[in-house]
């Protein structure tokens, strides 16, 4: 780390965790606890969520999430993403990393925190046929949609930019069913084939739609008000995320692949960010210290 790169590293860590050191209180809590957690060293979840491709996966997941009008209504009506995009990002990362690397008690606590937020997210929306419907963030369909697009985004991004997954894609999808169950998802997909089948079922059933709200959200995700020094890097990651989304969903989002090699450029950015942040995350390091203390490493 040099004096020139240290400020950029701090901005990255602040964006991802809400703390310039990369070790907020919830990361410290990962080191505590009395069991190995739901996953562990050598798990597919550790491999996928500990990799740099998560930076692209988060963007891809947000873009895909907008296509369900009920999910988009919840974001539009209740989310503070425009006022505090980094705060929303760090809150999502806290859940993801907590469930992945913490002990079971913290994983359940983090999932309950998400559930308490969902309890108040209710309203109405116009479905793809123009019929007004009521929604609640805890509705089985919305929970399933968010889980499916999240799992698809993180798996798809890792397959493009990550290393080998222990047990392969099926193992990751199977392991991550636990995260879905913790937030109330009914029958989460347990294999890559089931994941693709459930995702396509939403599209072919005519549930998804693109409208002015989706376009507004996509514009914001493209230009989310990050610090100026981060924007050139983010623009490349955004282009990489778009390039990784299947064509039929890109068309619904009104997005095109960049004319330049976004996949390769994104790979270079991820290597650069990895060199700045280090080979292992503070969260994984904390989890390993917990496992060592418990004699499980």
Tell me, briefly, the overall form: globular
Largest sheet report: 2 strands, antiparallel
Range of strand content: under 5%
Any idea what the radius of gyration is? Answer: 19 Å
Which regions are unreliable across 5 or more consecutive residues at pLDDT < 50? 1-6
Q: Report how far apart the termini are.
A: 29 Å
Instruction: Determine the mean pLDDT.
Output: 88
Which series of helices and strands comes N to C?
HHHHHHHEEHHHHHHHHH
Number of helices: 16
Structural overview:
The chain is mainly α and 297 residues long. The protein has helices at residues 6-17, 25-30, 44-49, 54-65, 69-78, 85-101, 104-119, 140-161, 168-175, 177-182, 192-204, 212-222, 231-244, 247-253, 262-277, 282-293; strands spanning 122-126, 132-136. It has a two-stranded antiparallel sheet with strand order 1-2.
Chart the SSEs and their pairings:
Blueprint: H1 6-17, H2 25-30, H3 44-49, H4 54-65, H5 69-78, H6 85-101, H7 104-119, E1 122-126, E2 132-136, H8 140-161, H9 168-175, H10 177-182, H11 192-204, H12 212-222, H13 231-244, H14 247-253, H15 262-277, H16 282-293
Antiparallel strand pairs: 1-2
Helix pairs in contact: 1-6, 4-8, 4-13, 6-7, 8-11, 13-15
Task: Fill in the keyword field for this structure.
single chain, 297 residues, mainly alpha, two-stranded antiparallel sheet, 63% helix, 3% strand, disordered N terminus
